[in-house]
Design brief:
- It is a single chain.
- This protein is α+β, with helices and mostly antiparallel strands.
- It has one domain: Hypothetical protein (Metal Transport, Frataxin, Chain A, 2-Layer Sandwich).
- 49% of the residues lie in helices and 17% in strands.
- The chain has 3 helices and 3 strands; from the N terminus they run H-H-E-E-E-H.
- Strands 1-2-3 form a 3-stranded antiparallel sheet, covered by helices on one side.
- A hairpin with a 3-residue loop joins strand 1 and strand 2.
- The longest helix is centred in the last third of the chain and has 19 residues.
- It is globular, with a radius of gyration of 12 Å.
- The relative contact order is 0.20.
């Protein structure tokens, strides 16, 4: 199991206390491409263009960022299965 997969499972259990670096590990581990913006980082998936999101550059992120990440990865896993 990859580091990103382990992180995905941990985030599924606890949505609080995660930072931008954790989401970077999660998104890039699942194949998303990182694009630095002014105050946010944008993540897009090269094979599924509708999978994209912005993440603020904060030490501790609001739970909504984590919920969005879990939804994105869940959707990616569904798309990849076929």
């Amino acid at each position: 199991m990859s580091k990103a997969e382990k992180l995905y499972k941990k985030m599924s259990r606890t949505k609080g206390g995660w930072g931008a670096k954790d989401l970077e590990t999660l998104y890039t581990g699942f194949g998303f491409v990182k694009d630095e913006r002014a105050k946010h980082t944008m993540y897009t998936h090269p094979r599924h263009s509708r999978l994209r999101t912005m993440v603020g550059r904060h030490t501790n992120l609001a739970d909504g960022y984590i919920e969005t990440a879990l939804e994105m990865i869940g959707e990616l896993l569904k798309l990849e299965k076929g």
